[in-house]
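In this supplementary section we document a worked example of the pipeline. Step one takes a protein sequence of length 279 as its only input; no multiple sequence alignment statistics are reported here. Step two produces a three-dimensional model, which step three serialises into structure tokens for compact storage. The input and output of this example are shown verbatim.
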Amino acid sequence: MFEKILVLILGGISAFLLWVDLPQLPAGPKLDLDKFELTWQDEFGGDSLDSAKWGLHGGSGVIPRRDGFWTLDVARVEGGKLYIPSFYSEDGVGDGPAGYYSLGIDTRGRFQQTYGYFEVRCKLPKGEGLWSAFWMMPNAFGTEPEDGRTGAEIDIYESAYHRDHWPKKDSVSSAVHYGGYGDNLHSQGVGRWFVSRPYDTFHTYGLEWNADGYIFYIDGRETGRSAFGGVSQNPQWLLLSVEQVIGGWAGDISNNSPCEMTDFVIDYVRVYQYKEPAQ
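The serialised model returned by step three reads:
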């Protein structure tokens, strides 16, 4: 009886925090990794980014993104980790102009999968105006604007709260979007969760995806679920990115001194498929 009462109390607290948009603790059921088998991974074991696995998201060379620029030239691989810095360059990088530089990479055209478990182990970039994410996209986003079953943007985690004080500080969020980025965009914030020292220590952020819905995890603990818009039934590819913004929900990157911004450090990305077909 006591356990049932405790579950009801904790459920009520979680519902209240979600309603008022306050972070929660990752305290759901543990991930059962035994039901999966590894299908794809990058342990970043070389001395450069593997072009057979990753490409620049959105184009080639130097591309504008938010209030800065993305280029593969900033990526650094050493010691079994990928480092994505964020910085201001008076002279630009490569053929790019003066401005803020960072990077977004994806596996489009290289790897995609329908259903399974998708996980990154990383240390988040510290600094106001830095918005990092591990997310997924389909090839057909927005082609059927009223139906998420053709594909969705699935934000496994987003970090944009370094500037915030309690209760949002040291938290990340998850979300699902479908319908394209125009007037037909439909969005659902799945929730926001506390992470212990996310800018200084490594944590895992994961997604279990099957025909019934999306299940989000932090450090192997379930955080939230969604089947918003109908669950994607098509292959989706992976993205890692750091957006840089001047004003807005992530703050203003120009408020940082150069030494205040730290790298986005990725230890690994791993993808699993169900050993038995997902129902």
